[in-house]
Amino acid sequence: MHSFKLENYEQWLEEFAALLHVPIKDHSITLPPDVGEGTVLAHTMSPHLSYAVLNFKLRSDLEIYREADGAKGFSLSFNQVEVNKEVRLNADQSVVADKGTLRNDIYLSDTRDPLHVKIPGGSNVKRLVIFATHELASRYLSAELLEKLEAFARANSLSDNPYFVNLPHRETLKELFEMKENDPLSQIRRLSRIIHLVEKFLHSFLRQEQASLPRTIKKNDLESMQHIEQILSSKLEGFPSLESLAHEVFMSTSKLKNLFKQIYGYTLYDYYNKNRLQRAKEMLITGGCSIKQAGSEIGFSNLSHFAKAFKKEFGILPRDLMKHK
User: Fold this and answer.
1) What is the pLDDT of residue 159?
2) Rounded distance, CA 183 to CA 131, Å?
3) Averaged pLDDT, 277-293
4) Which of 93, 112, 277, 314 is the residue whose CA sits 20 to 30 A from 148?
5) CATH number, domain containing residue 292
6) Shared-domain flag, residues 128 and 244
């Protein structure tokens, strides 16, 4: 159990390291074997901006309690947590108990409010948390947008929060989680990606605010869309039929199509296609297979069709990507 008042995430890491009796090296700690396996890294980029990257597998339960009356500002967290039991997220009187295998969301909170996160042992945790002071936010955001963000962050509408880690987020987060600290440009690379993620979140927030459809979506529908997103992200060999996807979540095909587009910003097929092409790109970059093998792995039997789809998505042919690795 780690209890703290948030001033910045580098200070938070110092307190967490002291609790675990582990040293900090290069702004990072390694979890002791009895707690888990993996690392936690934190940086203060300025007096008004800090972040932490949590990337580990837990062996014991972890409870993190952010006390009330910390520094005035916002905490934005991108969560990719695979669990085998229940993750509990409490804010004031609002509680989300997620019994699914994956918590895959984005959560904005006001750092003056208490927040309690409990993650069970056996969970795989990939989490980026960003702290920005109110002063920094007011410097770059309009008064109207800032007021809306404050109201949203303090509403604690956890079960109604429709912001999920989607494909574009996941690509950027993957780069962050795999970045090496001995890279001389690691700090500037992380900062650029963090700003990119914040910008994407704000864009989604504005889009939801301006949408004709209501932002509040039933919790069961949100969970259903997460389930569909996992299917589309893991299935490479062919796009499943709309009927089979709708059957998975017990809803009509029209509701499924509209709801998925509202939450993720893409049609079902576009999301599936973007995800499988990104997988092929990763396979080609790592050098684990040929162009033909990469295309075949993601369901293309015709090499020219694969090359055409790849260029449409990334603006470059697979063979040219291989040349410039």
Assistant:
1) 47
2) 23
3) 85
4) 93
5) 1.10.10.60
6) no
